[in-house]
Write a structure and sequence with these properties.
Protein name: Porin
CATH class: Mainly Beta
Distance between the termini: 31 Å
Keywords: Signal
CATH architecture: Beta Barrel
CATH topology: Porin
Number of helices: 1
CATH superfamily: Porin
Length: about 450
Amino acid sequence: MKRLLTIAGLLLFSAAGFAQGSTEYNSGLKFNLDSTGNKYMRAIIWDQIWFRSTEMNPGTMINGEEASSSTDIGNRRLRILLYAQISKRYMILTHFGINNQTFTNGGAAGTTGTGGYGQGKKPGMFFHDAWNEYAVVLPQEGKKFSLSLGGGLHYYMGLSRSTMASTLNFLTADAPIFNWPLIENSDQFARQMGLFAKGKYGHFEYRVSYNKPFATNLVPVDVPTGGKEVAVDNSGNTKWSRAGYFEYQFFDIESNLLPYKVGSYLGTKKVFNIGAGFYNAPDATQSSVNTQIRKHDITLLAADAFLDMPIGSKKGAITAYSVFYDYDFGPNYLRNLGIMNVGVANPDYVGQAALAGAGNLQPTMGSGTIWYTQAGFLIPDSSAKPIVRFQPFGAFTHKNFDALDKASSQFDIGANFFIDGHHAKITTQYSTRPVYTALNDSSLKGEFLVQLQIYL
């Protein structure tokens, strides 16, 4: 912890010394394809590096050694997004990169042991998004209605604002992950292949999609009688899913050129939105009772509100977001996840190991309810070109899953240090997570991280 705090201080000092760089990105890396600028291609590149100090779950070992804590550095995201407006009506987009590379894992498929293709090395890039879309009704001045249709591997997954969050401008260091409830099971890193429609009617925005989820085939554990069965992801001959998100924007109207929802505008917009969404996939999970397979729909519902409001005349701002999820994956469904988890189970551990598993795994999503709220305040600064802007924030999560006898609460607290807005920022954050050693017994463990983010 002391070493990480020292590193954070040195980084902040160094950043302040180099803060004289340009803060005017305009349209970023944009290349006009005609003389009018209506046809163009744009590239967006970003990287997020994490320094962490983490308390490990009981029963953890790292690279063959027992571990109760860990310090590490990892590459949370390294991405490239390219999109081209071929005409006023037609756009294509691709988005590729890597995620979650640590010193023990996250490398290319098959990398293991020691050597040039050892643990965690040379991660394989993959496509996150690849779609095209056509504007049937253009969003023109004086017209209230617009409509675009598209298809491919896409991010228009409905449900909530944070389900379609941009990873470039989070208020906190990262998303809470349960906002992507299908992550890497029936989707590809929060995306599915299908068709979508998007548009606006005045201050009302809509997004709907019809998709073919990726196949899942986990085998349910058989139980002798009903009531104790546990649903797992097994979609058989996968049926099509449906998703939607509907939002009313009371003040400034947000852009919907791309699906990625902004997490913090830093006072550059006056935004207050309320929204609601859904996701439904028929026969997407299975359980087994007395050797009889039962199929269950996945039905996910959400309602949320987002506020980003300038404060005063000195460029201050308040940002807040709250969302309530009602998840039904089938009976007693529970999924444990941990971001960039470097721990594995210790087979020789003597004691009560965490039910979720080793490392930083925690109950992340399941049948039940989740309430998540975050808020931050951009400290006012009247300087023409401030060296660093400061934005403290906090977040609170309450989870109540059917599979656990006891609900859990956890929090995040931290601050953003903006050297050049979201283009160059440092985030510090302390987070807690619930650790269950029995269905009705949980405690909290913590993680401190420093994130370095750049994007162009």
